[in-house]
Amino acid sequence: MPLLKLSQINKLFNEATPDEKIALDQINLTLNPGDFMTVIGSNGAGKSTMLNMISGALTPDFGEIEIANKNVTKMPEYKRSQMIGRVFQDPMAGTAPTMTIEENLAMAYSRNKKRRLKNGVDKKRRELFRTSLETLHLNLENRLNAKVGMLSGGERQALSLLMATFTQPSILLLDEHTAALDPSRAELITNLTKQLVEKDQLTTLMITHNMQQALDLGNRLIMMDKGQIILEIEAEEKKKLTIAKLMDEFQRIRGEKLTSDKALLSV
Amino acid sequence: MFLAMFGSVEQGIIYAIMALGVYLSFRVLDFPDLTVDGSFVTGAGVAATMIVLGYHPAAATAVAIVIGFLAGCVTGFLHTKGKINALLSGILMMIALYSINLRIMGLTSTNSIGRPNIPLLNAETIFIQFQTFWSSLGIDSSINHFFSMMGVQYLPSTWGTLFIMIIIVLLIKFIVDWFLKTEVGLAIRATGDNKKMIRSLSANTDTLVIVGLGFSNALVAFSGALIAQYAKFADIGMGIGMIIIGLASVIIGEAVFGTKTIFRTTFAVIAGAIIYRIVLGLALRVDLLDTGDMKLITAVIVICALILPQYFEKRREKNRKAKRHAERQMEHEHVLLREGNAIAKAQSD
Question: What GO molecular function annotations does the UniProt record carry, in alphabetical order (chain B) (predicted)?
């Protein structure tokens, strides 16, 4: 039984104007429980639009989205978020800067529960937050009362990742979450992603511009271009995949040379 | 002088409740809510009307709070569901409340539908009711005795109002502090801080804005109800510029006492409201100024409160940097001196 199913998703922006853009064109996609799929493609390929459809930030013009056999196409974003964890590209986007680390975690903790008039951070929860933060190895467990705005981009992104996975969501959506970080921080976050996803066997969809990352992580890979999924690679095949092969594949399908796009698809 | 200051403090504490409401909308929710100018009068009008109609002052105040809450919710509704700009939805509600307030106060009149003011000269108020209990304790005479021994000539007739208001305001402060740390409170704060993030954590930001504005305006209406009972009248014009007064209190308080924690910030807002009243009271004692100049003085105070902290912060930072620089220079010299001595010693050996 698929956990996530997109059928015939279509989305146009600025329709019937000279600026009309086909963002998504007949997208079909299924994710099974435990799948970790990486998504690559150049700018404007529709990767983020697809993720925003799944999260509910955007609604498709046509087509349907099912999560765990339930049609969620019209379900508002905040309700869907109970099942979906997200990390954004911008490290500022996933946390509340004027609130403390423990308060941010407390909000993540109440994601799949009804928020009540009950203390957000109590002794028991603080202990839980502390042990969870220890797994990041960033010494954040000793700074529970620091405002998140004081943290560096890498620290904030690590915290966002922890917050997104805190309540073991059915689906984890990662939108180029390492792209805004320097290489060493990006590697740290990549490893952390691997670790957290493996720990809870989270079903994950990750967009990346980094081909190597797309090959290293996950058991499935798709390539998107101009609003379409042009290539799907499954578990066994993916293990043997190299960057050169991917590039060739793109050229074979699209008849354009991908190397010219190097700036966008960094190797 | 003492008496004038005393009056300012008393009023300041009552207005502090309104300032806490403005803090909730303006700072916590990051929503510039102009409903305040209307909902303050709504609070005063509802309380005065019900008292004149013979209801218990406490019941009148409670109903005023509920109506204030509803007014705030409507503003939130206009903004979130109607997608009307935040400032505009507040202004619309403020204008609408003007007419509604006239009608509410008109309920006390038999020959007209609207009524612009209600005097409460001989009516029961919660202050008068508390007074009967308070004077039986005989605390006033002992406090006044103490002050007259210190040489203060004109003494207030009662300390009871100040006492009960301090209790009420502290109670509200602790409720607000507690509320902002609950799961709902955290979500409301995050709504003002980063909407995208809290939505991705499955919080309905629309509902939170509506509830938050409701809570904010409930406090504003509460303050209005108390002011009406304190000043013994309700007037349709008493809310003009109220948002600026609230803002002045928040800004002055934050500038003087800082915003490190919520506990401290809410305290700062209350203190800011009192400081504002005292400054205003002192300004009005200047012969050149008339009570009609009050709004002008308010504007000047707010402008000062907005500009001066920047200036002070800049100077403080400069001093801090200069001090730290001097320290590091000293350390550096010490190191050099020690090394120099070591070399000298080595050579002499």
Answer: transmembrane transporter activity
Of A78, A85, A88, the CB nearest to B203: A78
Cα B188 to Cα A107: distance, rounded to the nearest angstrom:
10
What does the pLDDT read at residue A257? Answer: 61
Residue B257 pLDDT exceeds 80: yes
* Pair (B325, B264) in one structural domain: no
Q: Which residues of A32-58 are buried (b: 16+ CB within 10 A; e: fewer)?
A: eeebbbbbbbbeebbbbbbbbbbbbbb
pLDDT in tens, A118-158: 999 999 999 999 999 999 999 999 999 999 999 999 999 99
Neighbours of B203 (CB within 10 A): 25
Q: Residue B312, Cβ neighbours under 10 Å: how many?
A: 11
Domain of A161 in residue numbering reads as 4-261
Q: Do B203 and A115 touch (CB under 8 A)?
A: yes
Select from B80, B181, B198, B202 the residue whose CB has the most chain A CBs within 10 Å, as the one to mutate to test that interface.
B202
Mutation for A interface: B181, B186, B198, most A CBs within 10 A: B186
Query: What are the C-alpha distances in Å from A8 to residues A24, A35, A61, B132?
Result: 9, 21, 10, 76
Tell me if B294 is assigned to some domain: no
Residue range A8-30, pLDDT digits in tens: 999 999 988 998 999 999 999 99
Domain residue limits at B89: 2-285
Predicted TM-score (pTM) of the model is 0.90
A263: pLDDT strictly greater than 80? no
